[in-house]
Amino acid sequence: MKREKYSRYEFLKKMGFQGGALMAVLASCTKPGDAVLESLIVNKNGETVASLDSTKISTKTTTPGTSTGGTSSGGTSSGGTTATSLPVGNVSTADLALVKNPLVKLDLTSSGASPLATAGGYVIANSNSIVIGKTASGDYVAATTTCSHEPKRQVIFNRTEFYCTAHGARFSLTGAALNTIARSGISTYRTANDGKTLIVYA
Ligand code: FES
């Protein structure tokens, strides 16, 4: 009976190895100088790959990865930078104009805004929905008047915090609940002014 002679490739293929598994076995049992290997590495298009040089393989992988990195480096973080440039506190009239459609625009020279001339003073604006106060350091702070205990619009400014006159819920100037009556925090808003006009915005 004639005995067949197989190359490693044919032998492994008859053993059931295919595709990537076949290539992996061949690579593991072949020396770098083994010329037969290169001719056996065939990609899905039927083209022969030059060699198993891992550097070349990883280079191919890196190329699309680089473009992905470019996408993520992108604009998203630039967008964040834009958000930080919003005017807060005492700013120029030009910077104040950067905020379009503020929730409140208040003439600080008007009689309605006179409570804000004094630290601890406050006004209620925007159809009774926003309270604006002036702190001891001269900053303007603003929050919703709607309490988190019950949906009553009774939150006022009380010198160093916001306070609900209905049942005594207390909130920090950043809106955090300060006692158990306040079930949770309340919304606060950014403020900016140029000395004449005060705006409140989200
Ligand atoms: S509704 Fe504000 S404390 Fe109850």
Task: Describe it.
The longest helix has 20 residues, at 54-73. The protein is an alpha+beta fold. The chain has two domains: 8-73, no CATH class; 86-201, Rieske Iron-sulfur Protein (3-layer Sandwich), CATH 2.102.10.10. It has helices spanning 8-14, 19-28, 35-40, 54-73, 75-84, 93-96; strands at residues 89-90, 104-107, 122-125, 130-134, 140-144, 155-157, 162-164, 170-171, 188-193, 197-201. 28% of the residues lie in helices and 19% in strands. The protein has six helices and ten strands; from the N terminus they run αααααβαβββββββββ. The strands form two sheets. Strands 1, 2, 3, 4, 5, 9 and 10 form a seven-stranded mixed sheet that branches. Strand 7 and strand 8 (170-171) form a beta hairpin. Bound molecules: FE2/S2 (inorganic) cluster. FE2/S2 (inorganic) cluster binds at residues 147, 149-150, 152, 154, 164, 166-169, 181.
Q: What is the string of helix and strand elements?
A: HHHHHEHEEEEEEEEE
Bound small-molecule species: FE2/S2 (inorganic) cluster
Please name the fourth-level CATH homologous superfamily of the largest domain: Rieske [2Fe-2S] iron-sulphur domain
Judging from the principal axes of the Cα atoms, what is the shape?
flat
What is the residue-averaged pLDDT?
75
Q: Poorly predicted ranges (pLDDT <50, ≥5 residues)?
A: 22-83
N- to C-terminal distance: 90 Å
Number of individual domains:
2
* Annotated CATH topology of the largest domain: Rieske Iron-sulfur Protein
- What profile does the largest beta sheet have? 7 strands, mixed
CATH architecture of the largest domain: 3-layer Sandwich
Radius of gyration: 35 Å
Count of helix runs: 6
Percent range of helical residues: 25-40%
